[in-house]
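User: Hey, my collaborator sent me this sequence without any context and asked if I could get a structure. I don't really work with proteins. Can you help?
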Amino acid sequence: MYEILLKNPNASIPVLSKASQFSRTMLYYVLNNLIAMELANSSKTGKKTVYNSAPPEKLEEFVADQQKELDRQKNALKGIIPDLGSIYRLSHKKPGLRFFEGISGVREVWWDSLSSKTEIYTYGDLELLATKFSDLNSKFVKERVKRNIVKKAITNDSPFNRDFLNKYDRTFTFTRLISGYSVDFSSTIMNIYDGKVSYTTLVGDSTIGVIISDKQIYQMHKTMFEYSWSCL
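Assistant: No problem. I've predicted the 3D structure and written it out in structure-token form, which is a compact way to encode the shape of the chain:
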């Protein structure tokens, strides 16, 4: 239609209808869209309304603007594709798997458990949480307590852990220590909650997080934790 307007300046509806072979209803619809996109304009000549195309440069500008908007939407889509993929896999009975990087990723993994409708079961490096990640952990605990989410944790027995736990509020957090057996939870946290299992590895540039959403994997780890808990 734009090309027809370009070839027929000051064209009336009858002229455009003949040139385009559109019905009058469709012709008005197309012309109104072109006017809205600033690719055409209308004016009165006496009692007659005539239509003209905008300069070709305007068409080039319109295409460039559309490309910018497409690029913006493409970039926005990149950010949500992992979550959409997880939803798709879960709906098709496949395990959902999400990866995160850096401290912001660790925060996202931990905060995911704050929507849990179950207790959180945890294995992990308590000393690391209480020292290098104390600020982030304190914020997480504060938010968890605010939401009345109980956490049970298993960690290794050590003088530091015993001293720390002696001063720790046990209202919403219960911890048992593995003693008499060498365990290595260094730099790692594992959370089991609400149909999910998450892992965070807290090692400098290799700080990463993973969330697995799968009922069977969750149930297996939940059962193993509860058995371990009952033995301590």
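In plain terms: The chain has two domains: 2-56, 80-231. You can pass these tokens on to your collaborator as they are.
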